[in-house]
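It is worth pausing here to work through a concrete case rather than discussing structure prediction in the abstract. The textbook approach is simple: state the sequence, then state the predicted structure, then interpret. We follow exactly that order.
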Amino acid sequence: MKLTIYPQKPFVIENGILTVLQTNNSKFYSDLIIGLSRHNNIIVSDNDGIIDTQENLVYLDNVISNPNLFLPFKLKLENLIIEDLNENERQRLFQLDREIKSIFLGASYLEDIPMSIDEEWSLKKLYKYSGIDVLKSAIDNPYDIIKVVLNSYKKFYPKKLIVLNVLFNYLDSSQISNLIQMIKDLDLYVLILNFSSQPYSKLFEKCRYYSVDSDFVRFDR
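Step two, the predicted structure:
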């Protein structure tokens, strides 16, 4: 897969190999962030054919502070949980639904207004009523948040290009090494942006590494 923002030549992102794009060029960095977040002025291609950025790229920005991090999974998680229910659980939920409706219907008789109740049986309505959601605050540290996010994309969107930002500030060298191995094991397309003027680090030896300096000079490794 390739990501292009003109006038730079394409940046290659391989599945299973973390790609790092580092820059201290404010203009290049801001143009790239705007392009990624708005799906504008950037091109994503695969096998030399342009592909839809909306369908094939997700820009997660700072996953540690992103409040909508798990929003793309809500419907898929709902469907998955409902599919995992066995017959006994479905029967019990049906009975509970009838009991709840019976209680409300009984209370409605106290009002001098003709009322009815929806008899439709819907697991999806019951699921939404339960208020089940991903509890991000229960995940202890930044590395674990990243781990949950990458595993979720592997499960639900394994072919998307995942772009992360402001990440290395949260991780120590051991966690960065583990992250590189995790991306290899999950076989995901992952690009991490790093706004920094630090010299090339040996931590990235197993990565595909690019840097664009303040003069727009590019280094590929």
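Step three, interpretation. Residues 87-108 form the longest helix (22 residues). The radius of gyration is 24 Å.
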